[in-house]
Amino acid sequence: MRKVMIVDDSVSMRQMVGFTLRKGGYEVVEAQHGQEALSKLQGCTVDLIVTDLNMPVMDGITLIQNVRKLPAMKSKPILMLTTEGLASKKEQGKAAGATGWLVKPFDPAKLLQTIAKVLP
Amino acid sequence: MKIDLSQFLQTYLLESAEHIASMETGLLQLRSAPDDVELLNSIFRSAHTIKGGAGSFAMTSLVRFTHSLENLLDRLRSSQMQATSEVIDLLLRSVDVLRELVQAEADAPMPQAALELVERIEALQPAEPAEDESCTDDAPEPVQDDREMKLYSVEFCPDRELLSSGTNPIVLLRNLAALGTVSCCHLHSEELPALADLNPEKCYLSWTVELASRCSDSELREVFEFVEHLAEIRIHSAEPLQKSEDAAPQAPASAVVKSLPSKTGPAAAPVHRKTTVKKADTSGESGSIRVAIDKVDRLIDLVGELVIAHVMTAQMVDDFEPSCLPKLREAVASMERNTRELHERVMGIRMLPVGTLFQRYSRTVYDIAQSTHKQIRLETNGEETEIDKGMLELLGDPLTHLIRNSADHGVESPEVRLAAGKPAEGVISLKAFHRSGRIVIEISDDGAGINTERVRLKAIERGLIGPDSQLDNEQIRMLIFEPGFSTKEEVSDLSGRGVGMDVVKRNVQQLNGTVTLESEEGRGSTVSIELPLTLAILEGLLVRVSDRTLVLPLLSVIETVPLRKEQIVRVAERGEAIVIREETVPLLRLSRFLGLPQETAGATGAENGNRQLAVIVESGRRKVGLVVDELLGQQQVVVKSLERHLHKVDGLMGATILGDGCVAPIVDVTGIGAMDLFSLQGKVKTS
């Protein structure tokens, strides 16, 4: 089963995304912020990461930059999940190495479609 | 696949309430540190999270409101704007509106107050740039059903850096192929260097794909949506194909089009909140508790140990020999240790830090200071002190009232304070701490204190005391907790209405706690609320009264003295009292009070008087001697409510089940302390 990591500081968002992913047939790993995501990635690799951008401790952009430094995660897709449609934030994410993005409000069908679109 | 997210609404609402509370705390802190970027970031994140979820539950007003709030906060945190006190005030009002909007029905229109605030917030910042994607991106394209099959040639020339974004070009080609029928795919490998120079992390290849598809240009381009900055995409289309004979690619292509994730289709509707779900929310907060995993883990460990101890004991009982006795004792002792710890830890699950309650009062104080033009600072201390969740909820209103009282009536205006030689800024302090197995919450202010003479006159006016009553200052001050002591002259918008101090006292007593008040005129007042750690278990003193076993809460027991006839004094026609070390303590004969058979066989009159004991208990500042026949021991008891099965019985707070299966009533010391003992003594209960 393919493994997807969801990184978001909001419990409800993690629950909703996690629920959707499980329904979509993925195994789910959760992290509350970038730091926790990175430490979880020390022990295991995932096939895809869905991350919020605004988070305490370590934000999404920093997380993406750091994930891209991990040999095992260098070429794995990363989706940014954010309310910010503003171009600047998206550009920062792209520059950091994000594969794609999803604009909130969170839409389960759209999430699964977008994942299918970037997963090999 | 239909995915229903409404089950997560409850979590979202709880989470939003937390975020709103932390926004409020943050904003109040921001007043003294308007440039604190970390603080602004965290306030921004809260608004951001609320907005993020609101969209999923179609709470449109909330989305719109948080959106403008988020923009303002974004400008503050990126230092494009200053967090002036005007802005902070505006944000604090927004927090109130947020609270309302979170509670409102999903499709309720935006309330007037919210609309006005949005206008004011938007007036503070330049018009929003039109780059917001959520507005531009989703413009629906006209849906064509019978679109013509076209031949396309798609050139896909990625940058060298394409792979660094985690994009797999093969996946893109696969997605493109799914939109039609590929007739030819050219691979351009001219730029591929010699093997020695090849960097495997760079992309040197490009492709040209020829396909027949019913999709539009933009739909094909959408395949490359995420790599537009990392690739050059050129799409050329040829003339429409003849519909008739080229049937071969037609069928699969149309099939794909239908299931396509295109933006032209009806966007998946966000979940609509159900009214029934909503109704449960108001009480939702009390219905659930979040427990740290390590607390649960420890419980599981303990249960494990308990099971092992039980197995060992059972085995020893089965193969019992007298020589086993010491071992058996040991096993039982270990079971007792485990049980006790399990008790404590299970109760610990219900414990929450009082800080969650304290934080809301910064706002209360701020509002009062604003409207009364006073300068007041709230200091809190001991926020980490844990208290039963049920108590925490019941404490909210009494504390609000006490704090309002302090801010409104206690702390003086800056002019008066300066004239009295005090700093212009008044301080209200809210403290929580443990004292001898109980939790104490103290609300103190450095304000004017209580004018005992005025209280005395008012009490006489209200008929609470006679004009010639001899009361010391402390007793007079306690009169403000009496029902009927209204302070109508001082009624203000803030604290003079609604619950009075008598309600504060009653609420605290309901929690099995006590309220005391200290005050010095000109220097300020301190109200202390003392509460038991939990309502469900207490350390009990088991006593025999007549033929019954009763439980007294051990914490309120001061001492036990033998009841000698010569110590008993009769207070003219009103009852008995006992003199201990020159202090007169009223006596209450529990057997008579509870309507039990008066005397046990063979013990009558003077003889009985010599054998009985008086357990001196303290309730608030009052002492009462409870007359019992025998002390039986002490143990932890689980308090069970009587009211589910019987009416409220005066003088009893509940009952417990003893080791031998008997039911033992628990005496309500606080309740007894509040009664007029001398008039009760004559009364014999028949029920």
Question: What are the key terms here?
Answer:
heterodimer, A: 120 residues, alpha/beta, Rossmann fold, five-stranded parallel beta sheet, 5 helices, 43% helix, globular, B: 687 residues, alpha+beta, Four Helix Bundle (Hemerythrin (Met), subunit A), Alpha-Beta Plaits, six-stranded mixed beta sheet, five-stranded mixed beta sheet, 40% helix, 22% strand, flat, disordered C terminus
CATH superfamily label of chain A: Response regulator
Annotated CATH homologous superfamily of the largest domain in chain B: Histidine kinase-like ATPase, C-terminal domain
- Summarize the biggest pleated sheet of chain A: 5 strands, parallel
Secondary structure: helix percent of chain B: 40-55%
- Report the total helices of chain B: 23
Description of the structure:
The complex is a heterodimer of chains A (120) and B (687). The mean pLDDT of chain A is 86. Chain A is of the alpha/beta class. In chain A, helix 1 (11-23) links the parallel strand 1 (3-7) and strand 2 (27-31). Chain A has five helices and five strands. Chain A is 43% helix and 20% strand. With 687 residues, chain B is an alpha+beta fold. Chain B has five domains: 6-128, HPT domain (Four Helix Bundle (Hemerythrin (Met), subunit A)), CATH 1.20.120.160; 150-258, ACT domain (Alpha-Beta Plaits, 2-Layer Sandwich); 293-349; 352-532, Histidine kinase-like ATPase, C-terminal domain (Heat Shock Protein 90); 537-681, OB fold (Dihydrolipoamide Acetyltransferase, E2P). Helices cover 40% and strands 22% of the residues of chain B. Chain B is built from 23 helices and 22 strands. The longest helix of chain B has 26 residues, at 293-318.
